[in-house]
Amino acid sequence: MIGFQICKRTRKVDAETIARFRELPVANISDSMSRMFAGGARLRPIHASGVLAGPAFTVKTRPGDNLMVHKALDLAEPGDVIVVDGGGDLTNSLIGEIMTSYAQQRGVVGMVIYGAIRDYDTLHAGTFPVFAAGVTHRGPYKDGPGEINVPIAIDGMVIAPGDLIVGDGDGIVCVPFDLTADVLKATQAKHRAELKQLEEIKQGKNDRTWVDATLKRLGVEIDD
Asked: Is 119 annotated to bind ligand?
């Protein structure tokens, strides 16, 4: 039944690709995807520190209800990232300390909640990656409906089951399964270029001629 179903994930990004992306900043991944894909500024890291990287195990749920999130915890495989589209609603929390503890025991490497969490103090003190849109003490309902392993969208960013999810202090980005090789190559090149630029800045050799060149191209008048 559409709206209340559990589907089977048919593919997911491989461990080697995940490991390579884990070493790259989310900002560089985003730049390499033309800055057109992002999980929204509201999705912030709740945990103290640590990078999130893994294949998406998706959940779409009615705002304020976590029945399908509980089922996802039972079905997810070690290394998975559970990504929940709760509609961005912050009225009721969808997860807290108990559910994240169970997720860790199951080998899940992190959770992304487009909605609210609770038990902030505990989650914030830990290193288990949790990204969420907000915090509230008010608990969830457990009636459904909801769907597991279906395409979801978070603030315009479409996430299909098995896509790559990467998160750091700048937020969350999703790399589509079929594009990981191309995006990885572009991101690695971008990262190398930025490291080179940072070294040039330290040495006082950073080339800034592009600024005036751009202003000139745009017809800006500059008084000398």
From this structure: yes
